[in-house]
Every structure is written in C-alpha cells, then in structure tokens.
Amino acid sequence: MSAAVAPRVVLVGPMGAGKTTVATLLGDAWGVPVRDTDADIVETSGREIADIFVESGEEHFRDLEAAAVVAALAEHDGVLALGGGAVLRPETCDLLADQTVVFLRVGLSDAVRRVGLGVGRPLLLGNVRARIKTLLDERTPIYESVADHVVETDGRTPEEVAAEVRELLS
Ligand SMILES: Nc1ncnc2c1ncn2[C@@H]1O[C@H](COP(=O)(O)OP(=O)(O)O)[C@@H](O)[C@H]1O
Ligand SMILES: O=C(O)C1=C[C@@H](OP(=O)(O)O)[C@@H](O)[C@H](O)C1
Ligand SMILES: [Mg+2]
C-alpha cells in the first residue's frame, strides 16, 4: 500500500545524469517542493559529502543516505532526487517499489563532460572516465530494475529532459 505522503516522482541515475538539475526544473514547473538526499545529508550532518567520505568512509555515507531516503519518502510530496549510489542499498530499492521512479540515463561521454574533474564527488577521484565507466556498468541494471520510466539525457538539455518527464507523468 502506498504511503499517505509520497513524492510525485523520484529521480535515480548516475552522477551527471542531471537528477539534481532536472528535479529543480520539475519542481518549478509543477509548483511543488524539491528535495535532494545529498542536500539533506549535508544539512543534517553539517558536513560536505566529500568530507563524510574522507573522514567516515563510504559505508557511513550509505547509512546516512539510506536514512535520508526513508525520511524523504515519509515526509515529502514533491520531487525527490536521490544520489547516484542510493540504489546500492537493497532496502532502498525495496522502498522504491511503491514509488514512481524515473531513471535518467546518461552515457559515458556525456557523464564525463558534465562532471568535469568530479569536484565534490569523491567516488570519482583518480581517473574520472574509468571510474564513471565502472559505476555505469555496475549500477545500470539496478537503475533499470527500480525504474517505472527511463528517460535518455544524452545530447539533450535539462529542460528537454524535464519536459519528457512531465509528459510521461501527465
Ligand atoms: N541534460 C544536460 N545537459 C548538459 N548538462 C547537464 C544536463 N543535466 C545536468 N547538466 C549539468 O551536469 C552537471 C551535473 O548535473 P547534476 O544535476 O548535478 O547531476 P546529478 O545530480 O545527476 O549528479 C551540472 O553542472 C549540470 O548543470
Ligand atoms: O554515485 C554516487 O555514489 C554518488 C553520487 C553523488 O550524487 P549525484 O549522483 O547527485 O552526483 C553523491 O551522492 C556522492 O558523491 C556519491
Ligand atoms: Mg545530484
């Protein structure tokens, strides 16, 4: 059974897919609030994402992220953007089964172009292109498994992507 409060849409996908950007455009278009689990984690922990990874490790970040997803799904009825690795936790995927989930797909070249040097995204430290390729290979099947809709973002502007999401959900 769906919760009484539920996001209108949950955006998933890799770093650089445009989840954060498109969430804001959708919120503006629909006139609903926007949440992003990365921003929620920064606010509740008082630390930047990169600092959490460096000081406390990825697993601790994933714990905070899983808790941020639970809170957002329970409290928020607007647009919700997840971090790219949120789907690594099976309990998060289970929760997404009751939600309307859109997978913003991005290919390797566009993702690399968009994240640049990966500043602020600690998992990309080192060879950004090689790291993104590994993450895309590992995670694409998970994004596909939780998604109700897949929207391609390569070669498209965030506005075009947001327009397709709006059309899909209208
Ligand atoms: N469709 C797009 N085309 C070009 N650049 C984009 C697109 N979507 C997002 N961007 C840019 O890519 C970068 C990463 O976007 P962001 O929304 O933070 O992605 P995510 O939250 O999925 O990691 C930002 O600089 C953003 O302006
Ligand atoms: O893919 C990941 O593991 C991560 C994605 C980031 O969010 P975006 O996907 O919004 O960049 C952020 O949560 C963190 O750097 C880890
Ligand atoms: Mg983001």
Secondary structure elements and their pairing?
Layout: E1 9-12, H1 19-30, E2 34-36, H2 37-45, H3 49-56, H4 58-75, E3 79-81, H5 90-96, E4 101-105, H6 108-115, H7 128-146, E5 149-152, H8 158-169
Parallel strand pairs: 1-3, 1-4, 2-3, 4-5
Helix pairs in contact: 1-8, 2-4, 3-4, 6-7
The protein binds adenosine-5'-diphosphate, shikimate-3-phosphate and magnesium ion.
Subunit structure: Monomer.
Main location: cytoplasm
Catalytic activity: shikimate + ATP = 3-phosphoshikimate + ADP + H(+)
Task: Give a written overview of the molecule.
The longest helix has 19 residues. The relative contact order is 0.22. Helix 3 packs across helix 4. Helix content is about 55%, strand content about 10%. The chain has one domain: 3-Layer(aba) Sandwich (Rossmann fold), CATH 3.40.50.300. The protein is of the alpha/beta class and about 170 residues long. Strands 2-3-1-4-5 form a 5-stranded parallel beta sheet, sandwiched between helices. The chain is globular. The structure holds adenosine-5'-diphosphate, shikimate-3-phosphate (S3P) and magnesium ion (MG). Magnesium ion (MG) binds next to helix 1. Monomer. Catalyzes the specific phosphorylation of the 3-hydroxyl group of shikimic acid using ATP as a cosubstrate. It is an enzyme of class 2 (transferase). This is Shikimate kinase. InterPro entries: P-loop_NTPase, Shikimate/glucono_kinase, Shikimate_kinase/TSH1, Shikimate_kinase_CS.
